User: What shape does this take?
Amino acid sequence: MKAILYQRFSDSTQSVGSSIYRQSKLATEWCDKHGAELIDVVTDAGVSAFKGKHAKRGALSEVITAIENGDIPKGSYLLIENIDRLGRDQIAEAQERFISILRRGVKIVTLQDGKVFDEESANNMGDIIWLVVSMARANEESKTKSNRAFAAWEAKKKDVDKGKKPKLRCPSWLDYNNETESYELNDKAKYIELIFDLYIEFRSMSAVARELNKLGVPRLGKAKDWGQTSVRWILINKAVIGELHSRSLRAENFFPQIVSDEKFFLVRSILDKKNDEENKISPKSNGEYSNVLTGIGRCGVCGDTMFMHGKSRYSEKAGAMVNYKYLKCTSRRHNYKGCGLPTFRYIYLEAVISVIAAKLESMPNSGESISRSGWLKGTIDSLLTQLKDTESKIDNLIDVLADTPSAKLKTKLKELEKKCSDIRVDIDKHKAELSRISNSKSDSSLFTKVKLSAESMKDPNYRVRFASAISRMVDKFIFNQDGSIYIEAMGNTIHVNRIKGDVEIKFNDSDESMIRLTVK
Assistant: This one.
């Protein structure tokens, strides 16, 4: 006699408590008493049965499929603690699920009262009445719990909207003071800023985790050691700057702030940039990297991405293999004319990029300026991330105001709009300073670098590193309809009139910084 235990708990905290132990103990006792062999235990962890989720995508759905396919043979016993383990959803659906299992020859045992249901039970009026009453009670209990939980959450939401601080589940570095009805930092809070400082230094979550484990910093969760996931969770958690982000609840100055806004958004900008680089830098499977602008270039006509088309082939005139690859707007993949942007011969484009990269690498030319330039770039990235975040808050607030007019929310909107304006002023100020710091070295030094770069570009590994460097330098790379290119990189604006023939590359709209060269 074969038996399978199906156990479920809807709250993940029950997994280490009495729920699993109780259900397993009942199953073992029943099997010992009836001489059955418990061949499998199937668990739905943290899955509610109120809306039937467990039967649609949980472990129960796999059990039902196995019964339908005959993998669980007729005559087997499906053990459940009580009827609500199989469902607390609508009575008709739960009843149909229960009876369909019986009709396939699998018996159901409710361990709490020892009742055994078989195929005959599906036609037994007494069993059907008991089944319907039990399922109705289970559904009503779940509905009551759901309504209570919803009402409690709505009450907390109203408190938050009024500026109050109700007790909520919060990060482990915070404790709730019932007397003052506010949150306080505990001993674990001292490690939070350390984690941010380490990430700014190492720029690697795994390196931060190793350092924390090396220093013996206690883990803030249940895991034994620090890992990338736990470090990342803290780095992106807005609770460190005092903000509440919990389901539908949003509030500023809700928790005590540990990390400054500047430091938090600097880390966010580093993380965002690293994610962008990981998406952009994807060498081909053979180790080569054809297009160093993959994921960076954009069409100035329609805003679409650019793709490489064409190949290298033998030229009788040149007596060698010649690169006939072009960058085209993605709109031309399915339409020959596309949006009207001309094609850009890649071999010429790469020559121009090498010159620009060498020029940027030569800026600035003093140790003090380099240090200041690095600080300005980091600050600009941080401010841009703050601006994006604030603009997102404004959009959300406008949506709320459209449905719920409120004087308080209107005041908040004005504050956010002023914050956006102030951030933009700071960005422009820092960009202007970065532009003043930027200056060129001698042309001889510049073109020596270009020559070395051209030789190195034949090495696939160097091309990957070069592409990665370009993605870090460049914020915008726009191809225009007249054949020119507009670039924003490292706080500089760069205009390229064309990529073949007499090329002029102008930095920051200054004739003094213009580079003239012939590309052929």
Observations:
- Residues 91 and 135 are 6 Å apart (CA to CA).
